[in-house]
Amino acid sequence: MARKSAGMSAVSRMCRALETFTPQDSGLRLSEIARRAQMPVSSVHAIAHQLVAEGLLERSAGEFILGVRLWELAIRAPGTFGLREAALTPMEQAHTIIQHHVQLGILSGSDMLYIERLSSPGSVVNFTQVGGRLPWYRTSSGILLAALAEPAVQDQLLSEARPAQPPAPNLSDADMQRLMRRAQQNRFVVTEGFVHADATAVSVPIMSPWRTCIASLAAVVPSRGTDVESVVKALRQAAYQAGQRLASSLSRDRL
Q1: Does 4 reside within a domain?
Q2: pTM flag (> 0.85)
């Protein structure tokens, strides 16, 4: 087993243990946490029981699961959850029109992190999950946010987007550059079949009061029979309202 925990602080080791949990693997045994965290089982044993004592982990049927206290702490974060609260009502209105997945995402490092999603029974296939991540270059939202990012951030993202497999069949670096230029011009991105052949994603930006792009609002719709223009229109209206609500919230907080 790798021993990569030497020299790490206690907080770093705790964070590494917590980061082993994913939306797909919400319950893990001690040995699996140790394997994923690349730390000795003895170290993880002590860390896990400290986290249980603090309510950050819980025990369930011989496994560890994330504790409710993590959620209680997370909802106090003003950035992500303030954005979610501002966007939720406009998202519901867009979802009523689109009748398929509508989701809210932000860039986190070089990944898209999804913080809310609304779906309907019978919606087209969609692999994103709330709290889940995808590489930015695999998503319409990620490409949009990369295209509208500051040059230094954009350069960093592009330097990391050299995957062994392309984002979509036959999509070269030059294709990606063209897609990003169109995103800068049109202020929306449409990607057909990036994650699944039957699904098309459409993304528009949510702007901050300082006119910077802080998030994406996206829909995942069927690749066939969808009026993309109407989807873009509904998303843009919702994104504008979300930006306005966020600005009003920030103004109230300053009073």
Answers
A1: no
A2: no
Look up the CATH number of the domain holding residue 160. Answer: 3.30.450.40
Q: How far apart are CA 128 and CA 140, in angstroms?
A: 12
104 and 148 fall within a common domain:
yes
Is the Cβ–Cβ distance between 180 and 158 less than 8 Å? no
How far is Cα of residue 242 from the mean position of the Cα atoms in its chain? 17
Query: Does residue 163 surpass a pLDDT of 60?
Result: no
The pair of structure tokens assigned to 164 is 């062994």
Euclidean distance between CA atoms 235 and 249, whole angstroms: 21
Are residues 136 and 216 located together in one domain of the fold? yes
Same domain, 162 and 99: yes
Q: Say whether both 174 and 245 belong to one domain.
A: yes
203 and 233 part of one domain? yes
**What secondary structure does DSSP assign to 39-57, as a single string?**
--HHHHHHHHHHHHHTTSE
- 113 vs 188: CA distance, rounded Å: 18
Residue 10, φ and ψ in degrees, nearest 5: -60, -40
How do strand 199-207 and strand 189-192 relate by DSSP bridges? antiparallel
Residue 165: DSSP 8-state: S
120 neighbors 100 (Cβ within 8 angstroms):
yes
- Structural domain boundaries enclosing 43: 10-73
Are the beta carbons of 82 and 249 closer than 8 angstroms?
yes
Phi and psi (nearest 5°) for 105? -140, 155
pLDDT tens digits along 62-116: 899 888 777 666 655 545 557 888 899 999 999 999 999 999 999 888 889 898 9
What sign has the CA pseudo-torsion 171, 177, 181, 187? Answer: positive
